[in-house]
Design brief:
By secondary structure, the protein is of the alpha/beta class. It contains 7 helices and 10 strands. Strands 1, 2, 3, 4, 5, 6, 7, 8, 9 and 10 form a 10-stranded mixed beta sheet that branches. Helix 4 links the parallel strand 7 (about 125-135) and strand 8 (about 155-160). One of its GO terms (molecular function) is hydrolase activity.
């Protein structure tokens, strides 16, 4: 029977962060783990189907609700959440809302949050510290990159990453300059939020990168149907 539980940690600035950890059916002393970081305005649930498939391949999975999203909405005892409206009048309207949300919950702290999650897993769970993998989409993809300067990350997959300015361009460059393990960047050719451009930028600053560009204008987890096979091969 699959072992599953909701876990919580507190961020450096007082956010109570929630994550959902599940182990594969196979009994082992230590498991490789994949930590999932979702895109803006969604929750950990966007990864549920893909995570199940990866558990069947022997990976433990930790699905995070990023600060201000899902159940990670209380900071120092007070609610601080992003109220997402799916009916934006234009792309500029969405970008404006993203910037306001950033000021509200501070997205630049997400990499630090993820580093804390890794500390928790190593100290409290049956996780192989040498096989920690990060997968992110959009905001989540951008946010996992600086984690490699704080933790030992085995592999990383960034689907539709955004601007490095979200977490700090200097921080991104420094992180990637010292990261020697494999990283895969994925974008659609006509991504409406500029991920094609950003993916090429990250690739140019990587030591051991793979860049996968697919046709169309899909963004984030909608690309999984096209790219899942490539990701599974990359994770082997």
């Amino acid at each position: 029977m699959v072992y599953s539980k909701e876990i919580a940690i507190e961020s450096d600035d007082g956010f109570m962060l929630k994550g959902f950890l599940e182990y594969p059916d196979e009994k082992k002393d230590k498991y490789p783990v994949i930590i999932f970081a979702h895109q803006f305005g969604t929750t950990h649930m966007i990864w549920s189907e893909f995570a199940k498939e990866l558990r069947e391949k022997g990976f433990a999975t930790l699905l995070l609700d990023l600060r201000g999203h899902g159940l990670s909405i209380f900071q120092k005892g007070k609610e601080n959440k992003i109220v997402f409206n799916n009916r934006f009048s234009s792309l500029l309207d969405l970008v404006s809302f993203f910037k306001k949300s950033n000021k509200k919950v501070n997205f630049s702290k997400i990499p630090d949050d993820i580093a804390l999650w890794i500390d928790y897993l190593i100290e409290n769970e049956k996780i192989d510290p040498d096989r920690i993998i990060l997968i992110g989409a959009s905001l989540g993809a951008t946010s996992i990159i600086p984690v490699v300067s704080m933790q030992d990350i085995y592999k990383m997959v960034c689907i539709s990453p955004g601007s490095p300015e979200i977490v700090g361009e200097d921080r991104v460059k420094l992180s990637l300059s010292s990261y020697m393990n494999p990283v895969m960047y994925i974008s659609s050719l006509n991504d409406p939020l500029g991920s094609y451009k950003y993916s090429k930028y990250y690739m140019e600053n990587s030591n051991n990168g793979t860049l996968l560009i697919v046709s169309g204008k899909g963004h984030g987890v909608v690309l999984l149907k096209k790219v899942k096979g490539y990701i599974l091969q990359f994770l082997k």
